[in-house]
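Continuing the batch. This is chain 6 of the set; chains 1 through 5 are on the previous pages. Same settings as before, nothing changed between runs. Recording input and output for traceability.
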Amino acid sequence: MLQNPKRYTITAALPYTNGPIHIGHLAGVYVPSDIYSRYLRLQGKDVAFVCGSDEHGVAISMKAKKEGITPQEVIDKYDGIIRKSFLDFGISFDNYSRTSSKIHHETASAFFKKLYEDGKFVEEVTEQLYDAKAEQFLADRFVTGTCPKCGNEEAYGDQCERCGSTLNATDLINPKSTITGETPVLKSTKHWFLPLDQYSDFLSEWILVGHKNDWKPNVYGQVKSWIDGGLEPRAVTRDLDWGIDVPVAGAEGKKLYVWFDAPIGYISSTKEWAAREGKDWEPYWKSEDTKLVHFIGKDNIVFHCVIFPAMLKAEGSYILPENVPANEFLNLEGNKLSTSKNWAVWLHEYLEDFPQQQDVLRYALTANAPETKDNDFTWKDFQARNNNELAAIFGNFINRVVVLTHKYYDGIVPQPNEFSEVDLQVFNELNAYPAVISSSIERYRFREALGEMMNVARLGNKYLADEEPWKMFKTDPARVQTQMYVALQIASALRVLCEPFLPFTAGKLDVILNQKQHGKSWNDISESSDLISVGHQIGPAEILFSQIEDEQIQKQIDKLEATKTANEAENKTITPQKDLVQFEDFAKMDLRVGTILEAEKMPKANKLLVLKVDTGIDVRTIVSGIAESFAPEEIIGKKVTVLVNLAPRNLRGVESQGMILMTNNAEGKLVFVNPDAEVGNGETIN
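Output for chain 6:
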C-alpha cells in the first residue's frame, strides 16, 4: 500500500446517459466517492475527483431507437439531467466531462493507437451474430437469450444479470435480436482483441498476492474467480454506428468497444480539469506517488480490476489503482432496482417531494450502504433515520446549544472557568474522534465512519443531559459558562466532521456558528480545545432537520405500489382466444341488463353471495362467487349483465338461475361488466 501519497486521483463510475440518476447509483458510487474526496480535501490533500457521462455504446443506441430520436439527442438530454442531479446532491467533482468531447475522442484514439503500434492487440476474423432483417451486426446488448450458466432466459449478450457471469453474445442459447425479434445468424467480421490471458500472471501477483489484505472481500473474491477461471482475449472493437472510430486502416465502420473507451474517460476528464486549472495532468496518472482509487458498483468490477488495469499495463506509462472499493447493489422495498420497470427513486423526483433535504437521503443511503452485501432501502427506514437520528440526536444537540447560548449570553461564546474532570474527559474524547473517523474512511467503511460522526453528537447530548446547565444557571452561573463553552466546542467540531457526509448541513452550521471564514480544520479538532473562540458571535438557531410525517412516507409507498400495479398489468399474460364458434352458438345466449335488489352471504361459504336480481322478465335468485371482492351492502342497486338462459344449478341447497358477467381490472380486482349508459332492466345484449 502506498504510504503518504503526494496526490490523489479519485474516479467515480461514468453513468450511462440513457436515463436519470436514482438512489442505487448514489448509494453504490457517488456518495461514497464524494465522502472520500471531501474528507481528503479537509485534510489539505491534493485531490482530482473526476467523472463524466458515458455517451457511447449500445445503451445509447437502444434508447435512441426506443424514443425515435438520434443518439446525440439522447446524450444531450440526459447529460443535463444527470449533471443537475449531481449538483443538487452536492457531489463535489473537480471535473465532470463527456466521452463525446473532442479531448476524449483524441485521448481514447491515441491510447488505442499506442497499443496497436506496440503490437499489444491480436487481430482476428471471427463469426459474430448478425441480424439479416436489420442488416447489421448485433452488439452485445442487442442480443438476448438463455444464459448457458444459470438458465436465465433474459440474459444479455455481454452479461447475465441474474448470476453475474460475463458472456459473449455467441454463448447465448436461443439468441434473439432485440431490434427485430429475429434469430440472428453468424457472419464473419474482423476485430482487434486485448489478449487478457497474457496478463494473468501480472494480475495474480498484483491483486491476489499484493492486495489480498486491503481490498474488499466482495471485490477480491470476484476478481479471483475470474482469474482462476482462465482469462481469454477480449474484443476492444465493435461493429457499431455510434462511438469512436477505430483509428487504423481497414477498420472502416468499426468503433472502439465502450468498455475500452469508457475508463479512458477518467484520463480525458483529468486532462480537461488540468487544462482549465493550469495544472499538469500527467502526475495524477503517471506518478508513483499518486494514489488512484476507482469507486464503482459490483457490475463493473471486472472492467476496473481486470480489463482496465491490463490496458494500463499494456500501455506502460500509467499507474495502477491502489484500491477499487466497489459496493454491492441497493434494492428498493425488497425488490431489485429497475430503470426499465420504473422501480426506483429518481433523484430529481425526490427533491420535488423532499425539497432541501438532500442530506437526509445522503445520510440514509450511507447508514444503510451496501458495502459488502446487497442492502434494502425502505421508506420507513428513511423516515426513522431522519426522525430518530438526524433530528433527535444531531439537530437536537445543535439547537439546544445555540438556543441556550443566545438565551444566556446573547449568542456570544462565554469565557470558561476551571475545567472539571468531566470537561477534560469530553475534550479527550472529542480530540480522538477525527482519527477514529479517518481510520474508517481510509478503509472505505463509510457506514462505520458515519456512525462515529453521529457519536460526536451523542457525546454532546449526553454532556448537556448530565450537566443540565438550564437547572444550574441561577445557582452557579460560572459553571454554566464552562458548560456552554464545552458544548460549543463539540458543535464546532461537528461542523467540520459532518461535512464529508452532510455537506448541506455543514453549510448551515457555517452560518449558524458564523464560522464560514474562520473555522478550524479536520486536524485542528485532534489538537485543540479552542475550536470556537471566546467572544465569538454565533448566528440565530435554525431547524436543521424537520420531522418527516407518516403521510409523506405513505405517498412514496403508494407511488411504488402504483408502479408495481402498472408493471403487473403491462406484463400480464392475456388468455389466448378460445376455439371459434358460429353465430348461431352465440345467438343461443340470452344476455340481459338487470339490477341487484338484495344480497347476502351464503352461510358457511366464504366465496358465495346469494343475490336477488330483477332481470326485467322476473326477479330470480343467482348465486355468485364474488363474496371475497364485495360486501353485500355495497352492490345492492348495482346494474349488472346477466346470462338469463343458463341452465339452473343447485349450489349448497340454493338453486342459482343465471350468471353475472365479471372481469378483472388492471389491479386484478373483480369488476362488473355493465352498459356504459342508463339502460332498463330486461334489455337484451346482442
